[in-house]
Amino acid sequence: MGYQDDVAVLAKIVQETDPSFGTVDGAQIDRVLADLIHSAKTDDLHRVMFRMMALMALPRNGHSRIIPNDAIDVLPIRFVALGRGIYVTDCTSDLRIALDHRVIAVNGVAVEDILSAGQPYLAGTDMRRRVVGAILLAWPEAVAILIGQENGPVCTYDLMSPSGVVTQLQVSTTLRAPATHYYPISEHGGAHAHRDLTNLAKVVHMPTSGCLHVQLPSFFCPSSKKMEAELKGASYAIGQQPNARLIFDVRGNTGGDFLRTRPFLHDIQKTWKGREYVVLVDKFTFSAAIVFVAILTTTLSGCRGIIGETMGDNTQFYAEGESITLPQSGCVLRYSSAYHDWKTGRAEVTTPKDIAPHLVAAGTLDPDVSIDMTATDLRAGHDPSLQAALQRLSQQ
Question: What is the 3-state secondary structure (H, E, C) of the chain?
């Protein structure tokens, strides 16, 4: 069979379409592409996917990437990168003993060594690669490739419980589920893969602190009217308490259309009379959500800091573009077509004309207060970042 048709699509994108590859040495592109062309003649889907992933990862741009999720089956267990660890947050009932445990090793190899071996195949920043890299631990063929072993009948996980007890869990590699059941393409970091976003924008009054918690979990919605209505409702709620301190929360927000958020920010600038606010972010804050933070913190005075984790991308990145389902492998190819510079606020030739006027020089947007979280925190509803935000706003 082979995967030559997929390679032809990738080659055209890399050589003619995606400007992020202009940052990569041409000889390096040629070498990786040649390896891919050679491997594409085989029927080894997983190794071909890894070669495709390696090619698209060269620019270290989080938007330009191969997304294997639609094309693979994984073990029925969800691993999520939380704080400094990789944790089990969901699984089938027969594996529930592993819930909230931190993964220490797979098949005798330390998790950090596996993730390190996976770096050349994962796109984006260090934080972005950690976010998307968790799926590798549930993908037996990926583990085998990365540690140089044959794919055996079981995967053996060394797990550490919340109390520090280390146990082993063996999972048959014949037990499989579609990857998207446990790993959404837009990974948000929640306990479960799929969220029921009943609210795209919600304002929660916290009477004991005098703060408003402005929750913005996503800027993606097929219905522009729904997004517009919810953001309008949020700005109205803030306007009803114009002197309140605000906590803007874009954790788990993987992006969408930031232009739809501009009226919301404009309304707040007109109606909010308070003096202080903070912004909550995490490694699952990405794309348009990063842009929102950039515009918010540079145009609305009173920011007392960014709290949480380093976000999922830098403030200079390539984006826009399209997604293509490759005809033979079934992988999704995501490519970029435009440059965004929210660090210095400078437009260049590929910056879209409707975005260029909104560019601001926001710097790096690194957290002022770094907070870690565990799977136990997640399941128990304990929110150390929110508590840190309240503490910061309570300081005079």
Answer: CCCHHHHHHHHHHHHHHCHHHHHCCHHHHHHHHHHHHHHCCCCCHHHHHHHHHHHHCCCCCCCCEEECHHHCEECCEEEEEECCEEEEEEECHHHHHHCCCEEEEECCEEHHHHHHHHHHHCCCCHHHHHHHHHHHHHCHHHHHHHHCCCCCCEEEEEEECCCCCEEEEEEECCCCEEHHHHCCCCCCCCCCCCCCCCCCCEEEEECCCCEEEEECCCECCCCHHHHHHHHHHHHHHHHHCCCCEEEEECCCCCCECHHHHHHHHHHHHHHCCCCCEEEEECCCCCCHHHHHHHHHHHHCCCEEEEEECCCCCCCEEEECCCEEECCCCCCEEECCCEEEECCCCCCCCCCCCCCHHHCCCCCCCCCCEECCCCHHHHHHCCCHHHHHHHHHHHCC
Model confidence over 44-58: pLDDT tens digits? 999 999 999 999 999
299: in domain: yes
Compute the distance between CA of residue 40 and CA of residue 45 in angstroms, rounded to an integer: 8
Q: Indicate the pLDDT class of residue 395, thresholds 50, 70 and 90.
A: confident
Residue 225 has pLDDT above 90, yes or no: no
Mean per-residue pLDDT, 325-336: 97
CATH of the domain at 287: 3.90.226.10
How many domains does the chain fold into?
1
| Domain-located, residue 298 | yes
Angstrom distance (rounded) from CA 266 to CA 228: 13
Nearest-5° angle of CA 27, CA 33, CA 34? 90
Measured CA to CA, the distance from residue 192 to residue 194 in angstroms comes to: 6
121 located within any domain: no
CA angle 341, 352, 311 (to 5 degrees): 35
Residue 289: inside a domain, yes or no? yes
| Domain housing 247 | 202-315+362-394
Summarised one tens digit per residue, pLDDT across range 147-185 is: 998 888 999 999 999 999 999 999 999 999 999 999 999
Task: Calculate the average pLDDT of the chain.
Answer: 96
User: Does the global pTM surpass 0.70?
Assistant: yes
> Are 333 and 66 in contact, with CB atoms under 8 Å apart?
yes
